[in-house]
Specification:
elongated, 2 domains, 6-stranded antiparallel sheet, 3-stranded antiparallel sheet, 255 residues, alpha+beta
Amino acid sequence: MTLSRKQAAGLFEFDEQPPLYATLHDELIAVSQRRKGVSIFEVAADDETEGQQFEAQARYLSLVTERRRMTVWSMPIWKIFAFRPDEEWRIEAYLNFLTARSFQWSDAAEFFKSSLAFGYTEEQAVGWIRANDRRQASWNGLTVFLTMPEKLKAATLDLYARILPSGEEESMSVFYPNTWKLVMRRDAEALSGPDAHIARVSVMSGSVASRFRSEMTRTSDHDDILFKRGSRTLISLINQNTTSAIKFLSKGEWK
């Protein structure tokens, strides 16, 4: 069973989870009061002036700021760090970890960054990781959602949930939120129908994600959901660029 764009959009809701800090200034205050280790602000590498307000607020609170030029998803950026003078080691620990790692980002890596480098408590770090698991399939790529009938779900599981089956691609629907604010509803299974199993998988970011978006249907710049009926080209593109296992929604959990 395939879904319509309207039905796919109805599977999502706005994430109502409040941010840990209401404003960036509140976050900087937390750093100055030793409730957080480091604050990071990212700006485009081609704009030297962007981020100066962040640096000025940090210095007003007697924090030290440091800019490092980095490349994220093939795009050059400035990472601006704000920290207390006696906690510069957190910056070096974080950057050395990024340089030394030879693996894809994981929950363990995120926990290290959140707790050791940024100074969050264990409870805060675990809470952030759990919230992210609801939002996306992995830390490495664009999370794509699909619906498929029972027989294609069984075929996917027979392929160890690492690849989508070929031959009946048109019986799948492929979609994903075009905004970070949307998360899948916990009762989405009941809304999708009895023979429309919901799956998700992460596909490689960067140029691949751009190619993927070009394959998707979009009616206006204001659409919150990008949607398309499955096709051989689209499913093949997913299979060639997965960065996670394919998981199915079962009783509100991804398994």
